Description:
211 residues, alpha+beta, Pnp Oxidase, Chain A, three-stranded antiparallel sheet, 34% strand
Amino acid sequence: MFYEPRHGHGLPRDPFKALVAPRPIGWFTTLNAAGQVNLAPYSYFNAMGDDPPVIMFSGGGRLDANHKDSVANAETSGEFVHNMVTWDLREEMNTTSDEVPHGVDEAELAALHLVPSRLVKPPRVKASPVALECRYLQTIEIPQNGPGGPNKVVLGEVVGVHIDDAILKDGRVDLAAVRPIARLGYAEYTIVETVFRMLRPGVEPDRPTSS
């Protein structure tokens, strides 16, 4: 089949998100002006650079307060923290995706324990094996059809990295053991369980690379 998004796809559900997959899940803690914590997941999330390391997240035009809060808090406070979502934390992540009123602590709803970060004020999820402390860089606005626009893409520089020593094996993060989950299309997810390695042409096996 072929379709033009502006004219519709003719299927029961929009297939677009299933075509750009898997997408890592950004799970962000932020603080509002009153010091209240917001915790929300995003499937529009990824790394944008590595020197300095930069990550991004986008609400995709979502209207619910939970996701609006994350963007507004990052912009006004200038800080946020990404917490890696693993198989063991899937239910807690899903709980924090619920639409709740402003000021409601999603971490408390999900029975998650938060601990202080080192360099930024928003806390991190203790049970998450990886956390990235970020300082806000900028927001890029892109078109969003329908209500709720524009769509805001938030960029932040990673200034602090937490890695649980238990997931390090021979100096590398053992992702197969961590089992991070990622978003597919519809209500479907996947798990990183099988890992294989390929060296770029011209790279010697024992020579360090950037990846």
